[in-house]
Amino acid sequence: MQLQEDEVYGPKADRQARRGGWWSLAINVGLTVSKIAVGLTAESPALFADGVHSAADVVGSVAVMVGLWIGRKPADADHPYGHGKAELLSSGIVAGVLLAAGVEIAVEAVRSFWGRPVAPGLAAAWTAVGAILVKEWLYHYNYRLGRRLHSRSLLASAADHRSDVLSSSAALIGILLSILGASWHIGWMLYMDSVASAAVAVLVVKMGYEIAVDAVHVLMDRVMEGDEILPYRDQIAAVAGVRRIDVLRVRDHGQYVIIDVEISVLGDLSVSAGHVIATRVKEELMQQFPMVRDVWVHVNPVEAKERRNGFPRL
After folding, report:
1. Where are the beta strands (DSSP E) in the chain?
2. Domain spans, the chain
3. Mean pLDDT rounded to a whole number for the chain
4. Looking at the domain that runs over 226-308, which CATH code has it been given?
5. Which of the given ranges, 15-29, 33-47, 189-203, has the highest pLDDT on average?
6. Residue 27 forms beta bridges with which residues?
7. d(C-alpha 171, C-alpha 193), whole Å
8. CA 117 centroid distance within chain
């Protein structure tokens, strides 16, 4: 079932995307304050590290909001392909902030091993549990919205929320093991809180790296391949008058795609008739696929020799 255009582009989609960004921003601010405050008072390096991660998320949420605002602007004379790649810049900012936060958390984790371990308070464990539940809800909310609106920045934000779930889970495990170590008088278990903060650092860096790689691929004009382009190829081949698809490039621009295609038509057709076929190809693609922002069609003639040899239609 095809999505209605206004569900992917237009005022309704813009409101939904902004709402998702504002939800993420508001909740990240609350989680940052609570994690850092409880992490300091309950003496939990793992929860404090998780709070630093949430602070990075605040910066990332702001970047997502800016990227959504710029990316939804229509094409103009200076940007004929639109502004969709602005969202990729915001994804890059999210990745950079995550990488920096991961390094900072790792440094603090190493430092904590040199001090005298102290079991954290139960408040740290309850705060981690609350963060896990809230972030899991945010992950599903942003992921569904990002998939429906074809929004790279919302999907990056969703991936960030999932990394928060993992990091808070690691922090919770470390906190609980440290508390048990103090209760059972097992000295080495007291260090599990610090070990958990190091695990959080690894998770944060890994997530930042994955988001950065995905953004770089699209910024470098990655073209879709294989099964990704089959629906577009089938739609073009079904247009009356198209004898062959010579070249098909589907370029990813974040929220939308741009298609460049070369088609072959009968060589004895008039220029006007060839133009009609090309126009029909463009119209069919843009009507059937909401993600398609523009289509550039080049028409090649089928030579007489090729027609005699049974020119294939692809």
Report:
1. 244-252, 257-266, 292-302
2. 5-219, 226-308
3. 80
4. 3.30.70.1350
5. 33-47
6. none
7. 7
8. 38
pLDDT digits (tens, 9 = 90+) for 287-311: 999 888 889 999 999 865 455 444 4
The alpha-helical segments, DSSP class H, found in 185-259 are: 192-219, 230-237
Q: Which CATH number fits domain 5-219: 3.40.50.2300, 2.60.40.1840, 1.20.1510.10, 1.10.3210.10?
A: 1.20.1510.10
> How many Å is the Cα radius of gyration of the chain?
26
CA distance 228 to 87: 21
Using CA atoms of 117, 122, 126, 128 in order, give the dihedral in degrees to the nearest 10.
0
Q: Please check the confidence at residue 162 and state whether its pLDDT lies above 50.
A: yes
pLDDT in tens, 104-160: 888 878 887 787 777 899 999 999 999 999 999 989 988 888 888 777 667 877 887
CA-angle at 24, arms to 21 and 27, nearest 5°: 145
Distance CA 193, CA 204 (A): 17
DSSP of 110-126: HHHTTS---PPPHHHHH
CA 151, 2, 282, 9 torsion-angle sign = negative
